[in-house]
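Supplementary Text 2. Reproducibility record for the structural model of the 174-residue chain.

All settings were left at their defaults, and a single model was retained for analysis rather than an ensemble. We include the record here because the model underlies the residue-level annotations in Supplementary Table 4.
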Amino acid sequence: MALKKTKDVPQIPKAREKKIDKLKKATPAKKKTEIEFNCIMYFHKDGVNGKQKYRFEVETIKIFSFLNYKITAQARKEKKTIDISLLGLTALNDYMAKVQPANVEIDFEDLFGEFTVNIIKQDGSINSAIVNFNIFKKEIEIIKEFLPEKKNNSTFCTFEVDKDSFSYSKEFSK
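Retained model, structure tokens:
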């Protein structure tokens, strides 16, 4: 029996990508508290154009040995709030596997003063910190780490400032 020829190519549905606003409204499932990520903040000089940036490096606590992974993330800055949404892990096409955690580096420009940094997981869990950025004093200070009021919200991320990774553009290196 011959197969019927189709007149048009069937369309494969696209996976729905969750936006930051939808993730903030989602209610996470109840589970035990486990630290999975670490958010490291530091000053960073862009090597391409020499601009001063503020880098947020989010890395997994678990270390991967067979494949190299990268965290897929979305970031948004609005007024005095920085939202970083962690979307998942992506395997990298490397010939040599390194023993390392998965990470993502997100750069921002022109941060000065107090900002609320929100790390948001796919299930809707949010961990937050209030951070003070001052490029003129060359310091980043974590004022407070907290969990926003939300049903079943749990701690999954820690925040830290890595002073050893600070690098400055010519404008601020004096």
